[in-house]
Amino acid sequence: MTEYLESPGERPGRTFTITFDLSRLPTAATAAGVALVSAAVVVSAMYTRNTGDLDTSNFVMGALSALGLLGFAVVAHLVVPDAERRAGLVSWPGAAGAAGLGVMLSVLISNDDVSIYAGAGLALVLSVAGYLLTRAAPFVLSSLAALVVLYAKLFDDVIDEGDEGSQFIVIGAAVMIFVMVATAAGWLLPATRELTGIVVGIAGLATMAGVLMSLGTIRAMTVAFSEFRVSGFDDETDFAEMDDLPGGHFFSGVGEDPYQNDVYIVLLFCLALALFWFGCALSTGHVGFRLLVAGSAVLIIPIATIALMANRPTWWEVGACALGGLVLIGAAARARRPETPAEVPVAP
């Protein structure tokens, strides 16, 4: 279907074209159908154990929905002759079905220590199998989602036994390592190399921003309470020293700030990720990695001023502006240099 409309402001007779290509209808309809069936799986997972016990009707509906997605992918793989159309009809329903079955298995198992590992493990196995059969990007995304869940659960089990005072540093390090390792692993799959790194990068950047925001909030509360004075006591008496009062044992001195170093270390992790994405941008030229670098500065630096409780944010503005200006000047100077063709080695 083609609609011809006269473009305002142009010479009479000139038109621009809006084209609706009905050959793309299966792809668009597949996205809508997968989204609706996946919504049924999510609702089922929400309410299957809403009361603590297994709600059979909700569980059966969610499991059948996930199995239906996988079954549809298998049938489409067998009956659709066109390879391009078949790819979309197999990959998205298959990846969503794999993730859905993992979710429903985790809901079915009542033991929380086992359910997450079992559900994410099943989703990972099905997604990897789907990727090996189709080499399609959606299976990479569902594999990454399963890996994130497994990594987060394993990390949670480990950190419960660790030092609570360094949790933010451990979380930041874990996020940085996962982003770098997952991106490096995705580099082995050229067809989805950029997709893997960018998706993992977006999740990692958002998590780092959340860690810094949490650090800033807890740090501000800690400093405020450590300087709190209880009315009726001497002005030199600190609330933190009143062990017989509720909460008094949590603070040990006036103006105590145990989280300042944590903020600096997490910022170093963010800098390492920004440099890592900068290298990926140089290697691939993909705009997604450049956006991650830009997001690191635009998102992390303002949050850093809050987390560090900057008294003079003007200096942060001056520093960011000066550094950005130098980088732009360097980029312009490099762009003015003529490109020299790569030398081709000549065999002796």
TrEMBL record:
Tree of life domain: Bacteria
Alphabetized UniProt keyword annotations: Membrane, Transmembrane, Transmembrane helix
Coiled coil: none
Transmembrane segments: 28-47, 59-80, 87-108, 114-132, 139-155, 167-188, 195-218, 263-282, 289-309, 315-333
Protein known as: Uncharacterized protein
Biological source species: Nocardioides marmoriginsengisoli
